[in-house]
Amino acid sequence: FFPRNEPEYLYYQSFQEQFTEEQNYLILVALKSPAENVFEKDFLTEADQVFQDLAELEGVDSSIYMSTVPYIRFTGTGMSSRPYLDFSTEEKLSRSQKLILRDSSLIGSFITRDLEYVCGYFFISPEIFDTPGRDKLSNAIDEVLVDGIPYIRTQYVKKIGNELIFFTGFSIFLIIGVLFFLYRSTWGVLIPLAATLVSLLWLLGSMGLNGQSINLLSNLLIPVMFVVSMSDVIHLITKFLHELPRQDDPRKAMEVTLKEIGLADYLTSVTTAIGFASLIDSRDPPIRTFGIYAAAGVIFTYLNSIIIIPNALLLLKKAKLMRHKALEGHPIWEVWMDKVYEFTHSRSREILVAFAVAILVSIFYIPRISTDIYLLEDIGPNDPIRSS
Questions:
Q1: What is the Rg, in whole angstroms, of the alpha carbon atoms belonging to the chain?
Q2: Rounded to 5 degrees, what angle do the CA atoms 125, 126, 129 make?
Q3: Which terminus of the chain is more exposed, N or C, with fewer CB under 10 A?
Q4: What does 236-300 look like in DSSP terms, one character per residue?
Q5: Which run of H or E residues covers position 30?
Q6: Confidence band (pLDDT; 50, 70, 90) for 191?
Q7: Structural contact between residues 245 and 326, judged by C-beta atoms closer than 8 angstroms
Q8: What is the pLDDT of residue 362?
């Protein structure tokens, strides 16, 4: 998301080469004791097993937790070592508790000062940090722990995936509702959706061909394409239905439709594509990528709308098309539009004043728009990444 040729970014790269990011490879796990303190044999046994399971996960390079910390004593002939915290029996646990409370080497690092949590440190292999292996490890940790240990990047991957499904499903639901409201027929829903879905397949296929990934911006391409594609589709179908009663042959009606609407749809598609393509000038790579593929998606949509929809409509019988109860031919629509025209024509001065006031208010409040780029603000207060 950062411009690659900025001096600050180049300085960061040189800094990153000099100083590594070990803190990004460390996971701290804290397990709370259900008893008054952590010195309870059953809890320590269960916690130690959890730590062992985490340490054995693929992608964990090394680990250290309370039962692996040695207690080293120097003797006359050398030194001896034994577990700092031995909870194999109640007697040994009692001795370990006295030793730990007397010598606070574990307190504050592996046991919290309030004696409520035991802690383990797990170092992640750097090789998987920027690969799908990171997400695989995160999911494996979720299976070991009830609440899980989320990573910021992994949480964002999940968030993007969930939002992509939600936005796509919601867009399809709204579009189906609008199409059914406009054309009141099965073909009026299925034909436009077919053209749109083919365009989306072309778009996603081109992204996969070029090795593009889904990020915070590109996950909006699908709902955007659904909305943009409906403009060409509705213009084309509505004009065809309007011309159909005037022509003896449906092919003639389609010919007139393409002559009158085809050029208009072409110009609107080209101008929309140019608008998206202007984002190529942005310094941010994801914004450039979004602009490129959004522009391509608009062109794909136009091509499919003038290829699929005309041929699909001509496959239907004229009588079936004439029986539709589209909103375009409903008398209520014409009456309502006439009233809108009469109102705007008779109240033109009042409408002009209202628009002028709205523009002045907008100009006044535009400078108050703030820039919010805080990463964690996108995650709710109850999400596990915050609670951890």
A1: 32
A2: 100
A3: N
A4: HHHHHHHHGGG-SSHHHHHHHHIIIIIHHHHHHHHHHHHHHHGGGG-SSHHHHHHHHHHHHHHHH
A5: strand 26-32
A6: confident
A7: no
A8: 93
CA distance 8 to 28: 31
Q: Give the percent of the chain with pLDDT over 90.
A: 10
Crossing angle between the packed helical segments 285-315 and 187-209, to the nearest 10 degrees? 140
Q: Sheet harboring 26-32: ordered strands across?
A: 26-32, 117-124, 60-65
Q: Is the pTM of this model over 0.70?
A: no
Return the pLDDT at 360: 95
At residue 387 the predicted structure's pLDDT band, cuts being 50, 70 and 90, is: very low
Higher pLDDT, 224 or 120: 120
**3 state SS for 331-373:** HHHHHHHHHHHHHHHHCHHHHHHHHHHHHHHHHHHHHHCCCCC
Question: Phi then psi for 121, rounded to 5 degrees?
Answer: -115, 130
Q: How far apart are CA 148 and CA 128, in angstroms?
A: 19
**pLDDT tens per residue across span 6-59:** 788 888 888 877 776 665 678 888 899 988 889 999 999 989 988 998 898 888
Amino acid at 360: L
Q: Can you tell me the mean pLDDT for 122-144?
A: 80
Q: How many CA atoms lie within 13 A of 10 on its CB side?
A: 3
Give residues with Cβ within 8 angstroms of 156, minimum separation 6.
Answer: 216
Q: Sorting pLDDT into bands at 50, 70 and 90, what band is 172? A: confident
Element spanning 197, H or E = helix 187-209
Nearest to 194 by CA among 238, 228, 229, 148: 229
Q: Is the dihedral of CA 126, 132, 135, 137 positive or negative?
A: negative
Residue (of 216, 223, 233, 236) closest to 294 by Cα position: 223
For 78, 103, 104, 202, the CA distances from 75, given in Å and listed in that order, are 5, 18, 21, 75
Q: Three-state SS for 121? A: strand
Determine the pLDDT at residue 311. 87
The stretch 221-247 carries a mean pLDDT of 81
Average pLDDT, the chain: 80
DSSP codes of every residue in 296-322: HHHHHHHHHHHHHHHHHHHHS-HHHHH
Check residue 385 and give its pLDDT: 47
